[in-house]
Design a protein that fits this description.
- The chain is an alpha/beta fold and 269 residues long.
- It is built from eleven helices and eight strands.
- The chain has an eight-stranded parallel beta barrel, surrounded by seven helices.
- Strand 6, helix 9 and strand 7 form a beta-alpha-beta unit.
- It is elongated.
- 41% of the residues are buried.
- The structure holds 3-methyl-2-oxobutanoic acid (KIV) and sodium ion.
- One of its GO terms (molecular function) is magnesium ion binding.
- One of its GO terms (biological process) is pantothenate biosynthetic process.
- Keywords: Cytoplasm, Magnesium, Metal-binding, Pantothenate biosynthesis, Transferase.
């Protein structure tokens, strides 16, 4: 398993860091077998696995349930677990309790927090909970921002640089930047010591993250401009339909798939 120190060293040696989301045991096993550096149990879970309309509906219980399965599937990969909407931003005691619970119950290697929660990042860091920060497009705030390119003016870009420096100063161990101009992502990656992982942020970051279901065309409905599809799990529909037809026709199960031991004696058919 990669440690935070090793991820930092990868940035220093300009070795790119790969990250993929996973939400269950088999996807985590695949990610680990594929030698991907880090796994994110994203709250994108809500949309790609649970069929919610946005990440806003995802609960602590959802995240814990799925992250535990991911941990079992990928015991030797660095796992980051998303803090869901509504678990923080309440009051200091509640926020820190939820952060600790998520870290402790899932046995993740870090939690990820969207937005400028610098006090919470500091507090988590103090007590030993590693935090990955997520800035730029933060889907939990989609009710305010919409799904669109963020920091697209000079002024907003400069603010994002400041914010990135602030989360680093607060103790964040990594930063995810989503849907921002690539030149800005490159500047932020250069300015920060911690690894910066991009999604829709161009090639200048220290690593890349994509959503498992997007990358594999597995039931994802609309796919953003920045998604490259490396596989096509939609062919699973054809396989399921062939099974359906063979059940109807009786072609399945053929002898090959049948236990032929006779136990019914003379009267048996
Ligand atoms: O939930 C998620 O999948 C994420 C990534 C897109 C960064 O936060
Ligand atoms: Na997320």
């Amino acid at each position: 398993m990669k440690t935070i120190k090793e991820l930092l060293a990868m940035k220093e040696q300009t070795e790119k860091i790969s990250m993929i989301t996973a939400y269950d045991y088999p996807s985590a096993k695949q990610a680990e077998a594929a030698q991907i550096d880090t796994i994110l149990v994203g709250d994108s879970l809500g949309m790609v696995v649970l069929g919610y309309d946005s990440t806003v509906e995802v609960t602590m219980d959802d995240m814990i349930h799925h992250a535990k399965a991911v941990r079992r599937g990928a015991p030797n990969t660095f796992v980051v677990v998303d803090v869901p909407f509504g678990a923080i931003g309440i009051d200091d005691a509640t926020d820190i309790k939820n952060a600790i619970d998520l870290y402790k119950e899932t046995k993740g290697n870090a939690i990820k927090i969207e937005g400028m929660h610098t006090n919470l990042i500091e507090r988590c860091t103090q007590i030993g909970v590693p935090v990955v920060s997520h800035l730029g497009l933060t889907p939990q705030s989609v009710g305010i921002t919409g799904y669109k390119l963020q920091a697209s003016s000079k002024e907003d870009a400069e603010q994002l640089i400041k914010q990135a420096q602030e989360v680093e100063a607060a103790g964040a161990v990594m930063l995810v930047l989503e849907a921002i101009p690539s030149d800005l992502a490159e500047v932020i990656s250069e300015k920060l010591t911690i690894p910066v992982i991009g999604i829709g942020a161009g090639k200048g970051t220290d690593g890349q993250v994509l959503v498992y279901h997007d990358l594999l065309n597995y039931g994802s409905e609309h796919v953003a401009k920045f998604v490259k599809q490396y596989g096509d799990f939609s062919t699973g529909v054809d396989a399921l339909n062939n099974y359906h037809k063979e059940v109807k026709s009786g072609a399945f199960p053929s002898e090959e798939f049948t236990y032929k031991k006779k136990v019914m004696g003379e009267t048996g058919k």
